[in-house]
Amino acid sequence: MSTKSNLAELVKRYESDILKDWVKEQLAAATLRGDLMSEAELRDQSGQFLKSFQEALQAGELANIAAPAWENTRVMLEGISISRVRQGFTPSETATYVLSLKQPLFSLIRKEYEKDPKVLAVELWTITLLLDQLGLYTTECFLKVREEIIKRQQDELLELSTPVVKLWDQILALPLIGTLDSARTQVVMESLLQEIVRTSSMVAIIDITGVPTVDTLVAQHLIKTVAAARLMGADCIISGIRPQIAQTMVHLGVSFVDITTKATLADAIRFAFGKLGLNVVRREKSA
Amino acid sequence: MEKIPILKMGRFLLVTIQVDMHDRLAMTLQEDLTARIVQDNAKGVLIDISSLEIVDSFIGRMLGGIASMSRMLDAETVVVGMQPAVAITIVELGLSLAGVRTALNVEKGMEILHSLAPAGEEAPGHDSQT
């Protein structure tokens, strides 16, 4: 235990020196992003981190950063990770921030225990383990934040990409754009069916012009949607099937039996008008 | 025991399911309905399931069964007002309900019945609707 308290003492005594060395180290490093963060900011952040690091060392829990003593340091690292994600740092740049603390600490320890190689080795090992843990923790936080951002964007995309359009009285259109997966089809199906009830529409047109590929799974989803709409008493038309997709589907053995399919949206609208007994007539030019 | 009422409207029978269907109730409905079709010489059956929120495979199959039986007795069946969640469930259960006609609401369902079984063909003693 005595070695550990020594380390804490050491860091406390030379805190300002370490900070100076560390900041110098960071400024000299290749991963420095002067465009994203000013030197003053870096110095300030590093000072704060070193302070909480030093305080945690005093508590003596050097092997386990999940211990309560490290609470402050962990919160600070989380904050640093989050802000660096926003600023556009890469994961390795963020991890290097913590790992670069090794250099000043190592040289300090080496100077201090020059005469006692055994203690030197032990201390170096302790500090390496500790900083590695902190570095990994930073990366973990970094990835977590990234994942949250991706998740949020996915949700937003889902909302944006499934508009149900009212084309005419009792005619709905659902222009699908982008790849269809199970989750998205579920949303599409629900919003379409709800809109059918709300507007009491007789015909729904699903336009797949914007769907890049249709595989058996997507076809299955489409068939289900059409079947559900039919059960509610609305007719479904699938339009916008590109020649390439038609070929692929036949090769795959998928056929839209019992489903009205049209090549273009215009054809589908014409068909829907016919279904409702509507006629589009060109107005006679009055002479 | 609770029962689902069957109303007669001209040449058609009207069934409104307003309680959660359980198997026993479904069986009774099937029996009553087929009996009433024969008794009233009905030409069409309209089943309103707009308040039905839960379906299972049995109820789904029963709807299909009623449609087939009615057709055998020369009456068309229209199921109206199916909720989106119910429609999704039935599709996910893999029941196609082939042969069952569907409509959005009672009004449209009646239109379909009228077009399928035009008035004035026979039906002595019934109101002919124009």
In total, the number of strands of chain B is 5
Distance between the termini of chain A: 106 Å
Q: What's the end-to-end separation of chain B, in Å? A: 38 Å
Oligomeric composition of the shown chains: heterodimer
Count of helical regions of chain B: 4
What is the N-to-C succession of helices and strands of chain B? EEHEHEHEH
Description:
The complex is a heterodimer of chains A (287) and B (130). In chain A, 64% of the residues lie in helices and 9% in strands. Chain A has 287 residues and is α/β, with parallel strands linked by helices. Chain A folds into two domains: 2-158, Globin-like (Orthogonal Bundle), CATH 1.10.490; 165-276, STAS domain (Transcription Regulator spoIIAA). In chain A, helix 1 (2-13) runs antiparallel to helix 3, helix 2 (15-28) crosses helix 6 and helix 8 runs parallel beside helix 9. The radius of gyration of chain A is 32 Å and the shape is rod-shaped. Chain B is α/β, with parallel strands linked by helices and 130 residues long. In chain B, helix 1 (23-40) runs parallel beside helix 2. The chains are: A alpha/beta (287), B alpha/beta (130). At the A-B interface, helix 8 and helix 9 of A face helix 3 of B.
What order do the helices and strands come in, and which of them pair?
The complex is a heterodimer of chains A (287) and B (130).
Chain A: H1 2-13, H2 15-28, H3 39-58, H4 71-87, H5 91-99, H6 102-112, H7 117-160, E1 165-168, E2 171-177, H8 182-199, E3 203-210, H9 216-231, E4 235-239, H10 243-252, E5 260-262, H11 265-276
Parallel strand pairs in A: 2-3, 3-4, 4-5
Antiparallel strand pairs in A: 1-2
Chain B: E1 6-9, E2 12-16, H1 23-40, E3 44-48, H2 57-72, E4 76-80, H3 84-92, E5 101-103, H4 106-116
Parallel strand pairs in B: 2-3, 3-4, 4-5
Antiparallel strand pairs in B: 1-2
